[in-house]
Specification:
GO cellular component, one term: cytosol
Number of strands: 20
Pathway: Amino-acid biosynthesis; D-alanine biosynthesis; D-alanine from L-alanine: step 1/1
Pfam families: Acyl_transf_3, Ala_racemase_C, Ala_racemase_N
Organism: Vallitalea longa
Structural class: alpha/beta
Number of helices: 26
Helix content: 40-55%
Distance between the termini: 36 Å
Cofactor: pyridoxal 5'-phosphate
Bound molecules: pyridoxal-5'-phosphate
Length: about 700
């Protein structure tokens, strides 16, 4: 079930908003008056309906009150911020000095916008509210018909006002309308038709070819230009944002855009919106600069140059703001480490990562797809960097533990499937959908809640076969098959998890086989019930290594991908040459002598039996070095020699005995995980020394450490 990315919509947002800037700056005015009219008053009029349709397309493909209110809240907040942002300009313009102030404020807030371009925000809110209730009461087709009537009423107060003008009673009626709203181009008359059309396009099953829509678009656009020029010629227009042919033109344009194939760019969505909000500010800024520098003739009087400068500056500022907002809510990437500058850091070796992918793929059939498990910041390796690299070498499936881990990947352009393995609170369903993530169904009850949301959501159903963690009981065949019939669940996968796949003990193998059998039995029963099986998966790293004969659609591989398995010691059925991807290093803070009977570190657990040389290393348990490595439980490598940790590991430092390596000096590099000279410390060894497992050691490495990717 391939989800479309709708890249065409993302790209056209920028074109549309550049058209809006054109409407407000008239770029062609100094070249050709008529050319400028065609560009800004006719062609440019596709921009706002495009934004309406996009909202309708994503909002009204199903009817959900919760989503509507979420949308209204979001736009409302944006509108509030924009009003405040432009308040100084209102004050400067003498807005607050006008008569009937309160009435005008109300009118502007609801219909006209407190500054000229802001009318769009209340319009889309009112339009969405009206459209939702029309569709709910009447269904899509009748709602659309009614919205067209509203549009016609709007037309008669806009481009076709000439007809109204010549018909007195009608004219009186419109005078009332104009008392409430300066234009008929508002949320009542203008927005619903496009919002509902967007929703109808999203719901419809059949589609024609992109060529068909393209021809349709250019034909109707041409006719709309004729229409615009004609009614302008006979001076029909009171205002010029609504044309009869705008509706078919938008129909063809939007269909053309959703068929456009390419990679979507989420950042463009925010950027376009910010450009829309801020471009009048940029126009004012440039006017100010021009005045101060006496460059009016270049910056202002030449409309084309003015337009280009406004567009470029608006785009750059908006992109920076969008990127800043995006950074704020994703992982803190604390920048690039520099070996010669930092006190401690992580090194990630891409070529070893690639080597492990190749090695692991050898054990998998062609049918089985590699699902890279990048939860917990890719086991401390940096999820964004690792996933970007894996994308580059062809991996198209990822698993994360939490929704925010998934969102962070999407925001950094990771493509392919992203499965959330864990529980997500139902209040975040909209994010799952917006970021095109796949949610794990943790049990039957949860499936019901997802379905209730009223909007199609992609899921994998988790089955419990004996781990007794998350998943619906494998024996509950009725509940499981029912989930497949939920209207709003798009079930693209079903899976279980083995809990002793790493063990080669006889009773553990028996247990795993029991899990596998009960899962397979369930699948057979589902087939008998006529359910077409989605993608199926069972194995994680040890599942692949100890049960290579299994052949499912995915293998969810975590720890083995990072080369943190010792297949020889573990006696796995398949022996692979996996290479560690991560190294952990720190620097010597100082070297000192201590005398016999002097103690070291907190708690005085270590006392020197003789005069000795010690080194203080600038890394501690706050960086993720387990405190259980204290008191000679762990070692580090220094100048290629293995030396013990003495005394207690502190929060930010630890101490080693270097009596036998007297050449050590301040600033020397120490290896806690990785290779130095001929010796290596594997994370499996570190884990053994403190009765943990590599997964825990790696995933708890702190974000205080910077990472170097080599
Ligand atoms: C973490 C996890 C994996 C990956 O396990 P590894 O042993 O690291 O390969 C696979 N499946 C599920 C459900 C997990 O939670």
């Amino acid at each position: 079930m391939n989800k479309k990315e709708y890249a065409g919509i993302d790209y056209f947002r920028i074109i549309a908003v550049l058209l809006v800037i054109a409407i407000h700056t008239s770029p062609l005015l100094s070249i050709s008056r008529i050319g400028n009219f065609i560009l800004t008053r006719i062609i440019g009029r596709v921009a706002v309906p495009f934004f309406f349709m996009t909202s309708g397309f994503f909002l009204f493909n199903e009817l959900s009150k919760r989503r509507l209110y979420g949308f209204l809240q979001k736009i409302g907040l944006l509108y509030g911020i924009s009003i405040i942002l432009y308040l100084p300009i209102n004050i400067y313009n003498g807005y607050f000095a006008q008569d009937d102030l309160l009435l005008n404020i109300l009118k502007d807030i609801i219909f006209d916008g407190t500054l000229y371009h802001l009318w769009y925000l209340p319009a889309i809110m009112i339009g969405a509210y009206i459209s939702f209730h029309l569709i709910k009461r009447l269904g899509y087709k009748k709602a659309f018909a009614l919205a067209i009537i509203l549009y016609i009423i709007g037309l008669l107060g806009d481009s076709y006002f000439g007809l109204t003008r010549s018909f007195k009673p009608l004219r009186g009626l419109y005078e009332y309308i104009f008392m409430v709203s300066d234009f008929t181009r508002n949320g009542v008359f203008f927005a619903p038709v496009f919002l509902i059309l967007g929703g109808m396009i999203a719901k419809r099953k059949k589609q024609c070819s992109i060529q068909f829509y393209m021809i349709g678009f250019f034909t109707t656009l041409l006719l709309m230009i004729v229409e615009g020029l004609y009614i302008n010629g006979i001076r029909f227009q009171r205002h010029d944002s609504m044309y009869i042919l705008l509706i078919p033109t938008m129909f063809f344009l939007f269909n053309m855009l959703i068929l456009f194939e390419g990679k979507s760019l989420i950042i463009l969505r925010k950027t376009a919106m910010i450009i829309y909000i801020i471009h009048p500010m940029v126009i004012i800024g440039i006017r100010l600069i021009a005045k101060l520098t006496n460059m009016q003739s270049l910056l202002i009087d030449n409309n084309l140059v003015h337009y280009i400068i406004v567009s470029i500056l608006s785009c750059i500022s908006a992109l920076s703001i969008a990127m800043f907002l995006q950074k704020k809510c994703v992982y803190v990437d604390n920048g690039k480490a520099e070996k010669d500058k930092d006190r401690a850091w992580i090194e990630i070796n891409y070529s070893n990562l690639k080597h492990n992918v190749t090695e692991l793929k050898k054990t998998m059939s062609d049918k089985c797809e590699f699902m890279a498990v990048v939860k917990a910041d890719a086991y401390g390796h940096g999820a964004i960097k690792v996933s970007t690299y894996l994308n580059k070498i062809g991996i198209r499936s990822f698993a994360v533990a939490t929704i925010d881990e998934g969102i962070a990947l999407r925001k950094h352009g990771i493509i392919g499937d992203i499965l959330i393995l864990g529980y997500t609170d139902v209040s975040r369903i909209q994010d799952i959908i917006s970021f095109n993530l796949i949610q794990t169904v943790v049990d039957y009850e949860y499936a019901g809640k997802l379905d209730e949301y009223g909007y199609s959501i992609e899921v994998h159903i988790k089955i419990d076969t004996g781990m007794h963690r998350i998943g619906e009981n494998a024996s509950d065949i009725n509940k499981i098959s029912e989930m497949f019939h939920y209207k709003n669940l798009n079930v693209s996968g079903i899976y279980t998890h083995l809990c002793v796949a790493d063990s080669v003990k006889e009773q553990d193998i028996k247990f795993s086989n029991g899990q596998i059998n009960s899962f397979n039995t369930l699948l057979d029963k589902l087939k008998v019930k006529g359910i077409k099986l989605p993608k199926v998966h069972v194995q994680s790293s040890y599942g692949i290594l100890n049960y290579p004969e299994l052949d499912y659609n995915y293998a969810r591989i975590g720890i083995a991908l990072y080369g943190a398995i010792d297949t020889v010691r573990d006696k796995t059925k398949v022996q692979l040459n996996l290479r560690p991807v991560l190294s952990l290093r720190a620097k010597v803070a100082l070297v000192r002598n201590i005398n016999k009977d002097e103690s070291v570190s907190y708690g005085r657990t270590f006392t020197a039996k003789k005069e000795m040389l010690i080194a203080v290393i600038a890394i501690g348990y706050a960086d993720g070095v387990p405190r259980n490595l204290s008191c000679e439980s762990g070692n580090v490598l220094i100048h290629g020699f293995r030396v013990p940790i003495i005394g207690r590991v502190c929060m930010d430092q630890l101490i080693v005995d270097i009596t036998d390596v007297p050449q050590v000096k301040q600033g020397d590099i120490v290896t806690l995980i990785g290779k130095d000279g001929r010796d290596s410390i594997y994370v499996t060894e570190v884990a053994n020394n403190c009765s943990s497992i590599p997964n825990e050691i790696l995933s708890r490495l702190s974000c205080r450490l910077k990472k170097i990717y080599i």
